[in-house]
Amino acid sequence: MAKLYFKNERLHMGISQRFVLRLVSYLVYASLMSATLIFFLSDLSILNAISIILALFLIDRVLQLRSAKRSIKKIPIFHKALSNSDARINTANYVQPGAIRAFEIAHDKTLLLGGQFCLYLALLLVKRRDIQTAIKRLEVEPEQFRQKLEALLKKSQSYKPKEKEVDKEIKKLGIEAFRQAKKNQRKYIEPADLFAAIVSLSHPGIDRLLTLFEISEQDLQIATIFSTSRLKNLLRFSPRPKRIRHRTVNRAWTSRPTLQLDRYALDLTDVARQGRDALLIGHEEEYDRLLDVLSKPAQANALLIGEAGVGKDAVIIHLASQIIADQVPKPLFDKRIVSLEIGSLLSGAQEGELEKRLNQITQEIIIAGNIILYIPDIHNLLKGTGQANLLAADILTPIINEGNFPVIGASYPNEYKKYIEEDSAFSANFEVIRVQEMEEEEAERLLTLKSLVLESEQEVIITFASIKKATQIAHRYFRQKPLPASAEDLLLEAIADLRGRGETILKAENIILTAEKKTNIPLQATKKEEKDQLLNLEELIHEQYINQDEAVIAVSNALREYRSGLNHSDGPISTFLFTGPTGVGKTELSKILAKIQFGDKNAMTRLDMSEYQTKESIQQLIGSPDGQSGGTLTEAVKDRPYSIILLDEFEKAHPDLLNLFLQVFDDGRLTDSSGRTVSFQNTIIIATSNAHSEMIKEEIEKGAAISYIEEQLKKRLHEYFKPELINRFTKIVIFKPLSWQSLLEISKLHLDRLAITLKEKHSLSVSIEDSAVSAIATLGNDPVYGARPLERAIKENINSVLAKKILAEELGRGDSLTIRYQDKEFIFEIKKHE
């Protein structure tokens, strides 16, 4: 790494020396101002000319009041310079005068009054309006923050540090402030960077203060972006002007105009010259690789692969801005990046005309000699959706093969796999660079900068807490798009909701409300109604479900742990293996749980694992390799991240497919065929199995304890599942065979539901006697299928009869109906409404 150090001569002077230096400086400028005025009023033309020169000098000094000696932006190939072991950078040269002044005052007060240097410096900075702005965005009152800081400083004043200790702290802070300024893409080290540096160096007093106000180090560092000049950031993200000044010839006058190319392309170096869209946060590794590829003497072609919104265009625009700033390797100096608009090129072109256009464009590029051709959505050349596309690919492929000029293509993972990877003649010309999704911290930084524009456009105030929450929620729950696009979409929706309610300050709770509305996932702290439901979940389930207490308690405990934040954060909410005979309620419990806790009985993805008995069936779950069809499982979880996944007859699935679930159970993640990561962290996964159900039944009949049966079952399940898979289940729940009493209660539950349906749809008052309940239980009892035949028994013996009577108008609205079983038949006694 380059050696960073901090050395400022003024800080090594005594207090009196600095005072004298400052006084002399003021006197010199006062003398120059006086001389300028006197010379300007003189009758001598030479003195008038001198006054103009002096005035220009003084104006320049005023304009440079906030400028450091050097600009961070002008460090050659900035991020690479820091990895050059021979480089030495004095960070003091990049500090704004205001920040240097804060160093001096804090330095002098520490030595004169005693106390901690960092606390003096922090107190000075907190009094600044820009730092107060950053603190307010964290939903903290700056005055309260300042008062607590003063109290900490007073306690520390009994400590008298030596000058060497203070100098050592200053050096550390100067170096760390440089790193903070780099992260925030600043030109100079500003006071806000000093404040962020103080926090990052983990001073005990500052740490206590942050803990008191529940602020993290990272949050405060990013919030200092709000202190940056608003005008500068509005310029970075505001829409491009309609008219962009176009420069076609390089400064060496060796290139040539490209009139035909300019008709069908946008010069991104022209766009960068306007100072817009040039910011790059994250993606440094991808950018470095792009520089290396484009600097090669031959086959300097790169292919950027990444999801929409991941930042491919940002990398290209940043490169364009670095080219115009001469911050690129020598082979890229004074190049133009020109984005070819395929749609415009193909529009209205017949076969002969298209070939003519392409040949003219490629000839212009070769003759110009300073063009880097950028082709967004390059896969469109190979799609074969029309003759024009095929012809364009046929013409461009051999030209790219020749390597006469560098080409950058951009595509998406699915399209790359489907169209480009299959065409080896075309794909061999490119070095693939995977543009990865940015980290949450990087997305927070980018959205903080963009929020300055959103505030201006939407007339709202956006707190940093809302940005942080939008990033966290989007990254976890909205995986259809990568960061930062997903978080920005959520932020915009929350702003729209906020404005719809007539409010003006966007807070974290607004983001949560919008996200809950979109996903039906409970994200807020539990409220009284939900707390009551969770605490009484067993009773609520048993209103619709008979027996199987162990299973009901297990799923209820899992949901309580999840909503109280005590569950394993990486994996799913819980993973269960429900074992036992057919028809004892394994699937029914899953349906009831989906309705009660997940809000909808359809909030459950049910997969019959007997349909996945071949190795190839994995593609059905995660998607086809060519990306043409999505996976049943992965797409379901993307669409409904908060849900139940029911894996029926789990033991019948192919062993390779079972291995797939090892990662899901452990990490709560699964990568689909297109390379997208799907999160299962908000799902309950229930696998059912009938394996060894006879053994379970026999042991229960013998009176064996459930713990003993569970232990024996685990040993026998190794015949179907690997031990590591069995051990990843949160709990293996044994479902008991249904007793006669349970069958009676289930029959009554089904018949009561039928009575409610008749009341709601036909206004019938229905009474079902115990004899009818007992008869249904008898008819629906099957030693092999458990309670499953009950519904069929009700349909055949009751529903079918009632349907005929309703259609024949024997039963009308308001009538009363009594159902009993007598002399081996069901009796339907109707009392007409008067």
TrEMBL record:
Asked if the record carries the keyword Nucleotide-binding, the reply is: yes
GO cellular component annotations, sorted alphabetically? Answer: cytoplasm
| InterPro entries documented for this protein | AAA+_ATPase (IPR003593), ATPase_AAA_core (IPR003959), Clp_ATPase_C (IPR019489), Clp_N_dom_sf (IPR036628), Clp_R_N (IPR004176), ClpA/B (IPR001270), ClpA/ClpB_AAA_lid (IPR041546), ClpA_ClpB (IPR050130)
For whether the record's keyword set contains Lipid biosynthesis, the answer is no
Q: Which UniProt keywords are listed?
A: ATP-binding, Chaperone, Membrane, Nucleotide-binding, Repeat, Transmembrane, Transmembrane helix
What CDD domains does the entry give? AAA, RecA-like_ClpB_Hsp104-like
**What biological-process terms (Gene Ontology) are attached?**
cellular response to heat
- Top-level lineage group: Bacteria
Which stretches are transmembrane?
20-40, 46-63, 110-126
Q: Which residues form a coiled coil?
A: none
User: What GO molecular-function term can you cite, just one?
Assistant: ATP hydrolysis activity
- Xref: SUPFAM superfamilies: Double Clp-N motif, P-loop containing nucleoside triphosphate hydrolases
Where the record annotates domain Clp ATPase C-terminal, the positions are 738-828
Q: Locate the AAA+ ATPase domain: which residues?
A: 298-442, 572-739
Task: Supply the PANTHER family for this chain.
Answer: ATP-DEPENDENT CLP PROTEASE, HEAT SHOCK PROTEIN 104
Report what the protein is called: Clp R domain-containing protein
- In which organism is this protein found? Candidatus Harrisonbacteria bacterium CG10_big_fil_rev_8_21_14_0_10_44_23
